[in-house]
Design a protein that fits this description.
The complex is a heterotrimer of chains A (291), B (243) and C (351). Chain A is built from twelve helices and two strands. With 291 residues, chain A is an all-alpha fold. Chain A has one domain: ABC transporter involved in vitamin B12 uptake, BtuC (Orthogonal Bundle), CATH 1.10.3470. In chain A, a hairpin with a 2-residue loop joins β1 and β2. With 243 residues, chain B is of the alpha/beta class. Chain B has a single domain, classed as 3-Layer(aba) Sandwich (Rossmann fold). Chain B is globular. The model of chain B has no long low-confidence stretch (mean pLDDT 86). Chain C has 351 residues and is an all-alpha fold. Chain C has a domain of 220 residues. Chain C has 15 helices and two strands. Chain C has a two-stranded antiparallel sheet. Chain C is globular, with a radius of gyration of 22 Å. The two termini of chain C are 12 Å apart. The chains are: A mainly alpha (291), B alpha/beta (243), C mainly alpha (351). At the A-C interface, α4, α10 and α12 of A face α6, α12 and α14 of C.
């Protein structure tokens, strides 16, 4: 029982980090109707950036975010302007191929620079743990979760209390209508892309501190992120949040109760069940009949 | 008994009552007009009749059969065709292919046979000729002009041999020559036995074509009669000029 | 040009048939086997993704299921190496059928964008199961297929070549036949305007599912051939996510929704991939170059080679007929009726 409780807690904490990474994906899909299959690679890129800052300049991981996040924000904007905007035709499908191409390039570069060795981010709080209620919890899990809370909270404030956020939400609901009332949807798209990538940077740091990774880790990561947003309902931020927490809790509990081998499989089976029962995911929008 | 009748239809979108106990009927063999100021609910009525919107209450009867809230596909198969305000054709298919989609075979063999060899090919060519698009039969429908697209949409409905056709603003955005051409085509088809229900803002078009006109205002029918009767009805004038 | 088309195709077919005899070098025939295999896969994939517009990015799942189906059948029924396994390839396709029906039914209930992501997720589910259902798939160790020991080194590729070619021809035939049937018209209508197609009586749900299943079965059979050819399969090699993207790239490059586009795209991409692997190996450079090519293709030729070429050809013909009309008007006072050569016949082979 105690183990299960522990699993739930760890699941929630790591789930927060996944929520951070998947919220970027959801924003991009909601605002721009593009599916960024390169999100996994970008998270890994963020992890490597934090790694470099920590290893060579001895900058603390969390402080390093003050550098990596803006850098990747700008990077995201550049990617959007250079590679996403010029795409004509079926945007969603082509965006998958474009972001995949970008992911390949990033993976290739990382592979060349860092080779195929697994690395992990180091800090005192990664290895140290504290005692709570009888079991040991690594500090990094709590810090990572707090990071997610802070950033997602900031995102919430941005969305609901700023003019930009208002424009973003309007664009998410109905792009054409937003354009008609004078919202600069292109500018919002570009900035949103930047935000999505910046969130990936933060997620990358948290991910890298809790997992060993290399350039090829992006595949497993993107498969989980995509499963999360489908489960939660594409385009729904709260859905992504619930699904992230849910996925990780289910996985960690399954690990403890049954076996780690079946952990992810159980979640995916739940995904299939949810799709049978409710094809649009937990909080997604149902299909209507178009006139 | 009229061919097509909607009785007591109510439809609300959130707080807005688009249709408020609205009843209209179409006699067989007629060309009936449905007019009214913007927002009176004409297109919503069309949508309810043809299954694109669910009604909150009321009934739709076709040839004595209750077809309320049936699916658009079923309604089409029963013999009720409709056009749309924003003309819908399949842009990436050729004109000819567009025509053939409209005739769906129910048996497996028909489904798997080559469409260009089917006996509907002859009929499709005839209809394209009827609307004057025969020369464009192999062009992509997306490259047609707006008026030509309207004609194509019209022809696609015709190939299914409907009993009644609901036209949603057929003359909208079309030049006067084309408008006359359309009116003439409608008259010819009517003589061959097809019933029409036409929503239009172009008064001349409606008045010259229709034998009976119904007027809608704020979701309900406020008048009906011959074009002359409706034109001089004070309630109708007030609806258009008032507000 | 139109009259010559069947002749061109016959010529191509003849070349394809005698190719291994002309170029018996095993390296060359191996490359061609892969190229033809991918051409078949891309053609099959096009039936759902190109014709209906519902792009499926999880078909590698069916590729792998077909592969494992054949491997398991050979293992459990003690099929010896040689020609026998080839007869089981359609059976592998039949195994894929109900599984693809199930996945297709789940995935097709949502609109296009969500559909894409669901197919990706489905793929990862199957991949995971391949790793975890050890009692069936033997986990990461994988399975091996029977070895045709009495085929000499030089002869080995020949049967594979012709079986693969046969699969490609069957896929093309199915794709062509669908394209020219009422069923295919329904699919294209779904792509252009699904709601209107429904309104006109097209049975959209059944059509989409049928297209999905047909494409999955073709890809599954290709997987079976592949498994037998590479002799041993394991989850990492069989369920490779890059495969799905390669499928999409091939069809896009050639022209999604056309008949010959996927074949052309597959040939180009597969041969290019082989070349790059030889030049750069599987490391970072390879990924960077591959990714960059991806971007270039998508940004500059989003509709693919065949449609772009067709457009240019059409423009050329229009320009030519304009010239002819002008010449006629200048020289002949009577109307020049026969000048326009724009009547493209839809009879014959529609490429």
């Amino acid at each position: 029982m105690k183990l299960i409780l522990e699993a739930i807690v760890t699941g929630l904490l790591t789930g927060g980090v996944y929520a951070l990474m998947s919220s970027g994906l959801t924003l991009l899909f909601g605002v721009m109707e593009i599916i960024n299959v390169g999100q996994g690679a970008l998270v890994i890129l963020g992890a490597y950036l934090s790694y470099v800052l920590e290893k060579n300049l001895h900058i603390d991981l969390f402080l390093g975010l003050l550098i990596t996040m803006p850098v990747m924000f700008v990077g995201g904007i550049l990617i959007e302007i250079l590679f996403i905007r010029p795409v004509k035709g079926d945007r969603t499908m082509l965006s998958i191929l474009v972001t995949y191409g970008i992911a390949l390039i990033i993976e290739g570069i990382l592979n060349l620079i860092f080779s195929a060795d697994y690395v992990q981010l180091h800090a005192w709080y990664v290895t140290a743990s504290f005692n709570i209620g009888g079991f040991y919890l690594s500090y990094i899990y709590v810090f990572g979760f707090l990071l997610a809370v802070v950033l997602l909270g900031a995102l919430y404030l941005l969305l609901y209390y700023t003019k930009f956020g208002y424009g973003l939400r309007a664009t998410m609901q109905n792009r054409m209508a937003a354009e008609l009332i004078g919202i600069d949807v292109d500018r919002i798209s570009t900035i949103t892309f930047g935000i999505g990538i910046a969130l990936a940077a933060a997620g990358g740091m948290a991910f890298g501190a809790t997992n060993a990774f290399d350039a090829g880790s992006s595949y497993d990561l993107i498969s989980r992120l995509l499963a999360i947003i489908v489960f939660g309902g594409m385009g729904s931020l709260s859905g992504a949040l619930i699904a992230s927490l849910g996925m990780l809790v289910v996985e960690d509990v399954t690990s403890v109760v049954w076996s780690p081998v079946w952990a992810s499989t159980v979640f995916y089976i739940l995904l299939v069940i949810i799709l049978i029962v409710r094809p649009q995911g937990l909080l997604g929008q149902a299909e209507g009949r178009k006139q | 008994m009229s061919l097509l009748a909607a009785q007591g239809i109510c439809k609300a979108f959130g707080g807005i009552r688009a249709l408020d106990t609205c009843s209209i009927s179409v006699e067989e063999g007629s060309i009936t007009g449905l007019i009214g100021p913007n927002g009176s609910g004409k297109t919503t009525m069309f949508n309810v009749i043809t299954g694109y919107e669910r009604s909150d209450s009321g009934q739709v009867m076709f040839q004595g059969q209750n077809i309320t809230n049936a699916s658009p596909a079923k309604i089409f198969r029963l013999g009720i065709g409709r056009t749309f305000q924003l003309t819908r054709i399949f842009p990436r298919m050729t004109v000819m292919e567009n025509m053939h989609v409209a005739v769906q075979r129910n048996d497996l063999k028909g489904l798997l046979s080559r469409w260009s060899m089917s006996h509907e090919q002859q009929r499709a060519l005839e209809l394209l000729d009827f609307v004057g698009l025969a020369k464009l039969k192999d062009d992509l429908a997306g490259t047609l002009s707006f008026g030509q697209k309207k004609l194509l949409e019209f022809a696609c409905i015709l190939i299914a041999e409907p009993k009644v056709i609901l036209l949603d603003e057929p003359a909208g955005g079309v030049n006067p020559t084309m408008v006359n051409y359309l009116a003439e085509r409608i008259r010819t088809l009517n003589q061959r036995g097809i019933t029409f229900l036409v929503v239009e803002h172009n008064m001349e078009f409606v008045m010259s074509l229709c034998s009976k006109v119904m007027v809608m205002h704020r979701g309900t029918r406020i008048a009906e009669g011959t074009p002359a009767e409706v034109r001089s009805n004070p309630a109708v004038l007030e609806a258009y000029l008032g507000d | 040009m139109r009259i010559l088309k069947p002749l061109w195709l016959l010529l191509l077919l003849a070349v394809a048939l005698v190719f291994p005899l002309l170029f018996p070098n095993p390296t060359v025939t191996t490359m061609m086997i892969f190229a033809l295999l991918f051409a078949a896969i891309a053609t099959g994939w096009n039936i759902i993704s190109g014709y209906t517009g519902y792009v499926a990015l999880g078909h590698t799942a069916f590729f792998g299921i077909g592969a494992y189906a054949l491997a398991l059948m050979c293992q459990d029924w003690h099929i010896p190496g040689g020609y026998e396994p080839f007869y089981l390839i359609p059976v592998a396709g039949l195994v894929v059928l109900p599984i693809s029906a199930f996945f297709g039914w789940i995935a097709l209930r949502v609109r296009r964008h969500t559909f894409i992501v669901i197919t990706i997720a489905m793929f990862f589910v199957v991949q995971l199961l391949a790793y975890n259902l050890r009692f069936i798939t033997n986990g990461s160790t994988g399975l091996s297929l029977p070895l045709p020991t009495d085929w000499s080194g030089d002869f080995y590729n020949i049967p594979f070549y012709y079986v693969t070619l046969l699969l490609l021809l069957i896929s093309l035939a199915v794709s062509w036949w669908i394209r020219n049937s009422k069923f295919g018209l329904g699919l294209l209508a779904i792509r252009d305007d699904e709601d209107r197609a429904m309104g006109l009586g097209v049975r959209t749900n059944a059509s989409k599912l049928a297209a999905f299943i047909i494409s999955a079965v073709i890809v599954g059979m290709a997987g079976a051939i592949w498994a037998y050819f590479v002799e041993s399969i394991y989850p990492a090699s069989t369920f490779d996510p890059n495969f799905d993207v390669a499928m999409a790239l091939m069809a896009f490059l050639g022209g999604l929704g056309t008949l010959s586009g996927p074949v052309l795209g597959a040939l180009i991409v597969e041969l290019a991939q082989q070349y790059f692997t030889i030049q750069y190996g599987q490391n970072g450079y390879y990924l960077i170059v591959y990714g960059a090519l991806f971007l270039i293709v998508i940004i500059f030729m989003p509709r693919g080679i065949i449609p772009t070429a067709r457009d240019l050809w059409r423009k050329y013909r229009v320009a030519r007929s304009q010239q002819v009309i002008e010449v006629n008007l200048a020289t002949t006072p009577a109307a020049s009726k026969g000048a326009s050569t724009d009547t493209e016949k839809k009879e014959g082979i529609n490429l």
